[in-house]
Write a structure and sequence with these properties.
seven-stranded antiparallel β-sheet, single chain, 323 residues, alpha+beta
């Protein structure tokens, strides 16, 4: 897969709604289908009744161990190759809990745009022959001016801009990288998360924020999105919980207390940033949102990113906010 988010969501669907899934496979249709007529028609093309396969999966689901279920369904499964760094590390940690002997690897930097890099120790080595690369600086100052390989500096954050090898398209990838070695022969980088920026200042590093949020919520954190609220001058943190227990006000106070131990965040608070606010939203699988967009735009699977890659809650559809 192009990222661990897709794999994690598919396995969650298999483990938690397996009985419903098997009924649909046997019948060759989607029983609880609230999609638009257009999407339903497109999905119906792929639905063929397969009672035998449904029974095989039902039998596999009787096991109590997730990895046993997977190996009964796919006996030759040895490893899952999926992008696990940067924004996807959050899902990689959840995915690994399902595996014992199955390996989660990412030796190839797989993206919806192809394989653009190979693993080189703890970093990745960009494939110069797979496209033309430009780099958009990620700073508190917004810019549309890209840099070439020769112009980037190690240690800084950049968003990768890719023109494919045939020159058919040029696009921002949303992939944030930090170069660690750059010369005419090689470009080595590590994938990073986008920092949170507000009022022309960096509020907090993305990785540091995620660690603090995980410490605050614990295993009950299923997914999240954080964005800067320009009107309220604060970080709004939208969270999905694995179960229904949790009070937003309590989480807000605890998260704010933990964030104030971070030097960048504390400095932003001194400069006028208001206390963060946690908002709990209904847990909803990302898969439907992903498939709706994929079908609408006739795009390859994996082009659309997990919830916390999105910078603005307004870009998340209503089905993410309400059951």
């Amino acid at each position: 897969s192009s990222n661990t988010w897709v794999v994690f969501n598919y396995l969650e669907l298999l483990f938690k709604r397996g009985a419903e899934l098997c009924d649909d496979i046997a019948a060759g249709n989607i029983k609880n289908n609230n999609n638009s007529e257009y999407i339903s028609r497109e999905l119906a093309v792929w639905n063929q009744p397969d009672a035998k396969r449904a029974d095989e999966i039902r039998e596999a689901l009787k096991s109590s161990e997730p990895e046993e279920i997977l190996l009964k369904i796919w006996p030759n499964l040895k490893r899952v190759i999926a992008r696990s760094s940067g924004n996807h590390n959050f899902y990689a940690k959840k995915l690994k809990k399902y595996f014992k002997n199955i390996k989660l690897e990412f030796s190839d930097f797989v993206t919806p745009f192809g394989i653009i890099a190979k693993q080189d120790g703890d970093n990745f080595k960009l494939d110069y022959d797979n496209g033309f690369y430009e780099f958009l600086p990620v700073t508190h100052e917004k810019t549309i001016n890209t840099l070439l390989v020769s112009e980037v500096k190690t240690g800084n954050l950049y968003e990768l801009v890719l023109t494919n090898i045939d020159g058919l398209y040029r696009m921002r990838t949303g992939i944030i990288i930090k170069p660690v070695k750059v010369n005419a022969d090689e470009f080595c980088f590590e994938e990073c998360m986008r920092p949170y920026i507000g009022d022309n200042k960096i509020i907090i590093n993305g990785e540091e924020f995620e660690q603090i949020l995980e410490a605050c919520i614990g295993d009950n954190l299923y997914d999240y999105l954080a964005s800067y609220n320009k009107d309220a001058k604060r970080l709004d943190v939208y969270i999905e919980l694995a179960d229904e227990n949790g009070v937003a006000e309590d989480y807000s106070a605890k998260l704010e207390s933990l964030l104030n131990n971070n030097l960048n965040y504390a400095k932003a608070r001194e400069d006028g940033l208001n206390a963060c606010k946690v908002i709990i939203i209904d847990k909803e699988t990302n898969l439907l949102w992903c498939d709706m967009l994929r079908i609408k735009h006739n795009a390859p699977a994996g082009c659309f990113q997990p919830m916390h890659n999105v910078e603005d809650i307004k870009l998340i559809p209503l089905l993410k906010l309400y059951n």
